[in-house]
Amino acid sequence: MALAINIRADNSSATEIERLWDQVAAFEVEPSMRALGYRPHFTFAIYDSPSISEKTAWDAMLTAVSGEAQLRIEFRQIRWFEGSPLVLWADPASNGALTRIHSAISAAIDPAHCRPHYRPGAWTPHCTLGTRIADERHDDAIAFARSYDGRIEVLFDVVDCVAFPPVRIISEQRLPS
């Protein structure tokens, strides 16, 4: 079991990302994002239990978002993380709040406890669109990402701490508008 601290879009603006989930699912072995039963989100940190307690993770998140409001994030590109399987993600336009929150979490909890891809210097803010791209659809998925010419704005309005798998919300708080 692992813990993650996230900001998610828990409102109707999330449907644009969810439409992209459905488009990306055509390249996957099986659809990954709808299967989570969880809304579009950014993950700031993942900790493998029992290295960090639920309370420690949640307290770090609350401290990191103190004074923060809901985040309106614009996406104009789809990118990918190479690997097997390939992962497609929506690339946020520059947003200092995401970086500020991530930095505050890393200051509150020693990043050595965090999974390597979420540590300072390695973390890339991303909103995942698909995690199970079939190897034989690799080139098609990259062509789809490169050809994307949309513009989406999504309101990320709830921070939370979840345990997974499966995703179970432990604590959550709506951010002020």
Automatic annotation (TrEMBL):
This is 2'-5' RNA ligase family protein. One of its GO terms (molecular function) is ligase activity. SUPFAM superfamilies: LigT-like. Keywords: Ligase. The keyword Ligase applies. InterPro entries: Cyclic_Pdiesterase (IPR009097).
